[in-house]
Predict the 3D structure of the following.
Amino acid sequence: MDFKLELNKRIEYVEKNINEFLPKVIIGYKQSEIFEAMEYSVLAGGKRLRPILMLETSRLFGGKDDDVKYFFSAIEMIHTYSLVHDDLPSMDNDDFRRGKPTTHKKYGEAMGVLAGDALLNYAFETGLNGVIALSGDLKAVKALKILADKAGVFGMIGGQVVDIKNDGKSIDIETLDYINELKTGALIEASMMIGATLAGATEDEVELIESVASDIGRAFQIQDDILDVTSTEEELGKPVLSDEKNNKTTYCSLLGIEKAGEKVKELTDSAILKLKTLNKENEFLYELLYSLVYRNN
Amino acid sequence: MDFKLELNKRIEYVEKNINEFLPKVIIGYKQSEIFEAMEYSVLAGGKRLRPILMLETSRLFGGKDDDVKYFFSAIEMIHTYSLVHDDLPSMDNDDFRRGKPTTHKKYGEAMGVLAGDALLNYAFETGLNGVIALSGDLKAVKALKILADKAGVFGMIGGQVVDIKNDGKSIDIETLDYINELKTGALIEASMMIGATLAGATEDEVELIESVASDIGRAFQIQDDILDVTSTEEELGKPVLSDEKNNKTTYCSLLGIEKAGEKVKELTDSAILKLKTLNKENEFLYELLYSLVYRNN
């Protein structure tokens, strides 16, 4: 399997679908600029990791791609809104993301707030269209509930709150785990759990998938910290040593690079072992999970 | 009927239910401050107009209060988040609301953004709990879809965008109607439509209710403009002549007070006439609709 080629196929498929769901600029709508700002934010690039994880977990359980498209679009909208709001002056105050001006830099701060709100709200409009397309099937309702829970104050938003509250403070590993589990982990868990749920996995299977995704999410975050120290700006496509500059407590600063690397391997092995107990085939998904952890950018 | 007494009963009922749904501060949750900020924002007071309109429209069609509580809580959370974000420095930059510091003044700007996000997200968590409590009944799914649509870029957020884009500009009546229909009207329509939908109203009936709510929403907004000119700060509980000070185009500045008053009467009569064609009894709802328009605060 040519992993890179297969990955790009999926990125294209995912982006095509998300783009089709986004509201379009139509004559007569006086609020068209918000449609532009939403599209600008969502289509600015990115790995499309969450949609692809959802799609491939659904395929692992024999689900239909057409059922998943509403939900993978919704989770990417939520991921995007969180970046748009994180970049705001009152939060991380970032002017650029992936080499382009951030949404509030391009459209103004008020539109930055509103574009984020719009994407969060539109994620549920899109997800509910999915529930309706599936005739109100309880699986679809539960899938959307997983998204809502994992994106909210007990998930992603909760993690962002704890992160902001500890900004500039040195924290212990328990707090660092807590922040990462919620801020990054929760949506990765949601991706895989929703894929499984839509494909008709049992509750036990969804729980196992949640645990796999939790390991992967943690390994992914630790690897992020390692790359910030060991990679070059050229490889990473963004400035390195940023955590040190920002006085951020990371797995490297708490554990050292070597131990952090061991932790990545441990978590990845654990995730793969759990996934194998399902006895289900999806070569691409396995490759994807490895690639998330053993990456250099 | 002692309208004031009956109204207060409903406000109490609605607030009790919303409060029960809100996430509580529990030991072990490091993000508890966001729960506080959400509760502070939601329980800061207010007319609870949208929840009560939803409840009473459901009752008009013989619906069960228990089915509606998730949804009236959700719409009040959405209404509240919109106020929290509207008050942010990059938007209206308001330090006080109902005599209390706004959420971002009390908890800081980053928490203002996050508390708004949290309430919007939590509205859907709550609404989806309602759908699950109703076993995925398509009526409940459609009710939540109405909420999502009316709160989004084709509804409330869209109106806010057009309002902000025209800030400080003089606008024509078409644009003023457009802003009000979306910014204020959409959620009032959603309230009544969701009440009707949950109670099993037909599509034609829901459409008629939408039109009633649209008339009421417009009358309400015009009356707001009139009161800003004709009322006293004592009666209104907030500064008067604020539109003039802010150079805001209003129905009074475009039509004059007399014509604006005629328009209020016209729209209210139209709403009541439509509602009467249903031949359904709900004395309190009729009184409530009149009170919204013929009020002095």
